[in-house]
Hints:
Blueprint: E1 7-8, H1 17-23, E2 30-34, H2 48-59, E3 63-67, H3 77-81, E4 86-89, E5 94-97, E6 100-104, H4 109-121, E7 125-129, E8 133-136, H5 138-151, E9 158-161, E10 175-180, H6 187-193, E11 195-199, E12 214-220, H7 225-235, E13 243-248, H8 254-259, E14 262-265, H9 271-274, E15 279-280, H10 288-295
Parallel strand pairs: 2-3, 2-13, 3-4, 8-9, 13-14, 14-15
Antiparallel strand pairs: 1-15, 4-5, 5-6, 7-8, 7-10, 10-12, 11-12
Helix pairs in contact: 2-10
Amino acid sequence: xxxxxxxxxxxxxxxxxxxxxxKCDPARKxxxxxxxxxxxxxxxxxxxxxxxxxxxxxxxxxxIFINTGRRHVDIPEFLWDADFxxxxxxxxxxxxxxxxxxxxxxxxxxxxxxxxxxxxSQGAGYGLEGNDWGFDDPKYAFRRMIFFAKEDRKDPSIxxxxxHMNPKNDNILVKIIFDSERPFDLEPMAKKLGFDILxxxxxxxxxxxxxxxxxxxxTDVHHNKAKAIKEMLEELGVAGQYEIAAIGxxxxxxxxxxxxxxxxxxxxxxxxxxxxxxxxxxxIDQDGLYNAFKWLGLL
Length: 299
């Protein structure tokens, strides 16, 4: 493993060196929440050093959680088999203890209907996703097929044409996916209806997606990765018993970084995400997660 230099930042958290040192003390046990894409793995390949760090941290009586925008159907079996202490999925809409769902929330059907009307007015393709399936309009279905072909990966989700959707599905949606050949002003409508926007863009995907110019997802503004942390610890009955650490790389990780006692951004993370971190580790392919765990006093 490379001993890469990592750089602490003093930013919006305004934590003192002594406060950070105290919180990073190995004697203070931590509940660690880790993003997936760009943090734990790149294209579902987890560095060996990351597994080493996770095993050592758990052996030292720390709790390790996954906190991601992915739904449970998008989580590969090997990650379930790792048996983390918990999985916060679909940007806080689904909480799992092992393979047991302990909390589930859904989008407001009326707000979904209004957002879909706006996306259609802008000529965007879109998909409506439930827990383990998705209904796609023709534009989005085609672009999704192209994306997975370029990635040389099988689509993990069960997909259907939008025309096959029936009314009962309206009440069990967890996110909206959009994909457009041109950018358009989505923020005002998203703010009005209570949606957060995650544009698919990071160091490993700098052009915001293969096959299109403007693509991403819309999630409930009232559910994010920060709220997922709070709800998960409450559900497990351990709230207030651990220092909370969060590790991420992109803008949708910012809420959990800001809510954590200790916030780490990967070296491959976006500049905006680095600005809210207490510490910037090395990149994912340079033992970034291992170095993050080392700084946090988990090893």
